[in-house]
Amino acid sequence: MFQNIKSIKNIQKQLVKCKSTILNTPSRKFANFSPQNYSNLGGYALIGSGTAGLMYLMYRGQMLAQERYQMPMSQIQQMHFFNRTVQERIRSTMGYFTGGLFATGLMVGLLRNSMLAITNPWILLFGSLGLLIGTQVTNYYQSPILKHLLWGGFISTMALTMVPLISMAGMPVVYDALFATGISMGGLGLVAYNAPSEQFLRWGGALGMGLAGMIGIGIASIFYPSKNLFNIWLYGGLILFCLFVLYDTQQIIYRAKINPYYDPINESLSIYLDAIMIFQRFLLIFMSNRNKK
């Protein structure tokens, strides 16, 4: 996997080079935007991936901060796993997770040739952040219409961040990344769902440290571009987010059993963002493998 990493370095150089190209290109040059314009797409892919990653880090940091103040499991009254209410909550959460992924794919298809795909990155960043916060704080039962509108808006912004990278990769590579992501998410989810104990919930601290390390590597890469740092970010991040799938799946089950107020949309965001991060990394890995041939 780590042999012949020159192609990975070339992708990194291309993305960094195209970032400066975009910042210095007049806006009229984007009037004839097309997926084949890879020199521009590389820069927007970099910005889009960074925006999606920042959304994940913001969400994950907030969730880990909240989990610090949870009561010990032994002091919490839990419903049984096979309780009808628990099962309905889990099914509803998985429904929003699946619907979010389907809506993301649909939006990417609809917006692949749209000027919205090259919108101002700051507007996209703050728009995504605002919609994410709005989705989390809106009451699922008291304001269901507003909740779903905010959730749909956040899904749309995440789709926009992925359009340049997907256009640059090409559909054969995208299909491979989708298949790999589906197999990974499905397999890990089944392991966590059928685990006889809640052992993966004890990984929160270690995963938080790993996430902090990914943040540090990302910041360091800005000031010191390095193929080694890029490899750690790419492959280390893939392993980290796969572990988060195990953790988040059991968190959904655990909260479905204990929370008097359960919001399936909020609970689905964790594994939705896990899937987005895993897909992006598989896409970059397969793109590098294609360039080796």
Automatic annotation (TrEMBL):
Transmembrane segments: 41-59, 94-111, 123-141, 148-167, 173-193, 200-224, 230-248, 269-287
Protein keywords: Membrane, Transmembrane, Transmembrane helix
Membrane topology designation: Multi-pass membrane protein
Subcellular location: Membrane
InterPro entries: Bax_inhibitor_1-related
Subcellular location, principal: membrane
Gene Ontology, cellular component aspect: mitochondrial inner membrane
Family recorded in the similarity comment: Belongs to the BI1 family.
The name this protein goes by in its record: Growth hormone-inducible transmembrane protein
Native species: Stylonychia lemnae
